[in-house]
Amino acid sequence: MAKNGTYYLGRIIKTGALETKHIMAALRSPEAFTSYGSAWTFLDIKEFSDGRTSYFFGRLVKYDPEGEVTIVDPKARREVIQREPNMTIASSPFVYIPDHSGLAFLHVSGQIDYEIFMSRWSSVVNVSHHEILSECIVEPIADLSSFSKKLNSLDSIYFLSASVSPPNPMFGPLWENLKSYLIQRKTERMKIEEDGEFAKPLQTDLPKHVQAVLEQTEEMPYLPEPLPIGDAAILMAADGYGKGTVRGKKDGVVIMIKTSETAMNFSFSRDPEPQELYEKAVEIFEYVRLERHMRH
């Protein structure tokens, strides 16, 4: 029986002239990317259709271009080192779902953790698509329930920072104004930082907004007045369109909360069937879309 592993959800951000068709082309004909002596590429890429839309299944592979193994020479009664170029070190299965600009991928402890996966997956795409001044970035989608619990545990918030990019294709209503501003200004990446005065917390209702998103229903959506830019940017990052950090205090102790540290994940087979992994991932992406009332 196949063992289960932990899969994470990521959102793909496209900058410059990069389009979904370029990511698809990179998957179909990937090149290798080398970092710190290890090489990375995609293997076993397959393209499927569920009758309505297409999706891709494959593996991100980490390998050693200059690999060596130790073998036994029975006649000489000794061990010898033998070169094994391009020796596989680890691999992580993934499914790419263009409709959600989303990825679901396996965390491989000690070799391909979820943050390394997002960085290396992006790098392989970027060396493969050959689009000048264009870049693919993968960011995690935060689990709002975990994020809310951490925020609500704080007595006060003193610092907010976020780095966000315009979404494609979906957006959340609580940060729609910020999305429109970024597009109007033709901004590909915006960084914002708010630091409270010494010993004085920021005037922010961020914990309230996150909790309200969780409690909203289809009949009674949470639609407040346009949020302050700092709060909107954190929520945008939590939906997978950037990185966000909140720093506050609990019982006098400084606590730092990052959207990337509350990344959504689920348990699934480490050796999955492509269609089954796709169906599970789509189910969760749809849950995220409905929970947060995201729309095109």
Task: Give a description of the structure.
The chain has two domains: 4-140, no CATH class; 144-262, no CATH class. It is built from seven helices and 14 strands. It has helices spanning 20-28, 114-129, 144-152, 176-184, 206-215, 229-241, 274-291, and strands at 4-15, 33-35, 38-49, 54-64, 68-73, 78-83, 87-97, 102-106, 135-140, 156-164, 190-195, 242-250, 253-258, 265-269. Strands 1, 2, 3, 4, 7, 8, 9 and 14 form an eight-stranded antiparallel beta sheet that branches. A four-stranded antiparallel beta sheet has the order 11-10-12-13. The longest helix is centred in the C-terminal third of the chain and has 18 residues, at 274-291. The two termini are 40 Å apart. The model has no long low-confidence stretch (mean pLDDT 92).
Write the layout of secondary structure elements.
Elements: E1 4-15, H1 20-28, E2 33-35, E3 38-49, E4 54-64, E5 68-73, E6 78-83, E7 87-97, E8 102-106, H2 114-129, E9 135-140, H3 144-152, E10 156-164, H4 176-184, E11 190-195, H5 206-215, H6 229-241, E12 242-250, E13 253-258, E14 265-269, H7 274-291
Antiparallel strand pairs: 1-8, 1-9, 1-14, 2-3, 3-4, 4-7, 5-6, 7-8, 10-11, 10-12, 12-13
Q: Pairing-aware structural class of the strands and helices? A: alpha+beta
Major beta-sheet overview: 8 strands, antiparallel
The total of beta strands comes to 14
What order do the SSEs take from the amino end to the carboxyl end, as H and E? EHEEEEEEEHEHEHEHHEEEH
Rg over CA atoms, rounded to whole Å, is 22 Å
Instruction: Tell me the number of structural domains.
Output: 2
Sheet-strand content, in percent, reads 35-45%
The mean pLDDT is 92
Query: For the terminal residues, how far apart are their CA atoms?
Result: 40 Å
Assign an overall shape.
Answer: globular
Helix content: 25-40%
- Total helix count? 7
| Unreliable runs | none
